[in-house]
Amino acid sequence: ALASVISTSDSEPPESAPALSGSHSGRKRAGWQPPAPASSAPNSSLELSSKLPIFTINPWDIMLCISGTIIACENAIVVAIIFYTPNLRTPMFVLIGSLATADLLAGVGLILNFVFQYVIQSETISLITVGFLVASFTASVSSLLAITVDRYLSLYNALTYYSEKTALCIHMMLIITWGVSLCLGLLPVLGWNCLEDYSSCSIVRPLTKSNVTLLSASFFVIFILMLHLYIKICKIVCRHAHQIALQQHFLTASHYVATKKGVSTLAIILGTFGASWLPFAIYCIVGDSRYPAVYTYATLLPATYNSMINPIIYAYRNQEIQRSMWVLFCGCFQSKVSFRSRSPSDV
Hints:
receptor; GPR6; G-protein coupled receptor; disordered N terminus; mainly alpha; 8 helices; GPCR_Rhodpsn; about 65% helix; Rhopdopsin 7-helix transmembrane proteins
């Protein structure tokens, strides 16, 4: 949750153009940004002097825009492949498609935020943009939880995984994921913002402190659930590998290699997710709008990297998607080469 306006002071709003503020370089919007005293000093190293040109661009905003461009391009390829490949209609690929769609929207939101921030000055557009980003990143994080649940079900109920009951469960998770994400994204637009009360702003303007606290708490719940499920997945993987080895009457070296590889992969998945989002989620709770904006930018930017890494972890490593990419971009794939259909439990 998520990229938006970064404020630096309760009483002295920055003259720079933090993300989603809808204003830039000394321009201030009437009604919610009180003028700073002429003698006051800026709190943030990112603040721009009023003597600088009015169209000076914040370098952190440029990095966020570049990040959004890469995210959009990566995930657009995944969405196109899944959409145009009839074979990729299993629950696993539906969830990967949901994740890619959410990350694609998040990337587009970062780009639009940059454009609207420096081209169109409007409080309405600012609220719509921040709501769009909140909904997109929430859907992305929630889709990761849905993928984790799917992987757990594929191991725990391996014999009945491909039943209609599983398909119904996956579709229900998608409905809940996008429904909740849409509701959270609409909250700032419907009035839960700090446009009328600047003192209630969080480090992410125009979201209020209570709003970002709710989003951060939701993230911690999702992170704990993912951690719990991945621990159970590790136990199941190790137990299955041990049982297979015992059926062969000896423990082979490949047993330990396969187990170690599976656990390492799960650790990378969870570690990447935590390293990307935990700093920003923690800072949303402990941070204050009076703190320097550089702290918010420094924790927000790595959070966007998670959407950049997701397609690599969940899509491009999959053999079916690799095959479809050959067909899509080269058209020279030889159909005689066979690929083994993989289940969500293949890590």
